Give the backbone structure.
Amino acid sequence: MLTQLLPAQVVAVEATTAPVDAMLFPEEERQIRNAVDKRRDEYTTVRWCARRAMAEMGLPAAPVLPGLRGAPQWAPSVVGSMTHCAGYRAAALAHSSDISAIGIDAEPNEPLPEGVLEAIGLPQEVRWVRHYLRAIPGVAWDRLLFSMKESVYKTWFPLTGREMDFEDALITVDPALGTFHARLLLGPAERMEGDPRSFTGRWSAENGVLVSAIAVAAEVPAQRNAPHQVLVGSVGQVS
């Protein structure tokens, strides 16, 4: 599923069950030593995915430890993102010479708890979510919006080293193409020179899981303050 959403420069590995050969480095074990079984399974399996991706890239296996705000720390030549939800784990990695940032997020294809949509969504977003909930059933559009906002944050933070809130990105979605666009709404006082103005990504809904993904090309934008170039792969299928 994830490989359909990302360009060829990105290596994506997914898992729906815990692999028997999944292991942790001692540094990772220390991070998770007091975790319950469910959390340990998520933590271990998503790192198994990351190390499978490292191997496909010709890189040695390495621990993946949380850094600032919990973002995974990669080797200097690598960018990546990880995600997990019930029944699904995934990691996506690329060489930093090809891709400057990746953001992926997986969520169960289930409605958000009551009141959460209004807390995370801008008025325009709440309108299209409610419209598509009626017009195109089978996709939890409110949960998909949450996933897209998470992917935006996971892409933004490694690029800038700064946080952003849910209301700092306005998401629009194309159900037919399986794409979404995020216009970043940071004001002049919050924006720095070279910051991206927008991201474009892809999404999919399959087998009870919603996945959204963004990959930003490593090339410097041709124009000052122009939107960062975003690479996308083939469109995922909605089921």
User: Anything to note?
Assistant: The longest helix spans residues 37-56. The chain is about 25% helix and 25% strand. The chain has two domains: 2-103, 108-213. The domain at 2-103 is CATH 3.90.470.20 (Ribosomal Protein L22; Chain A).
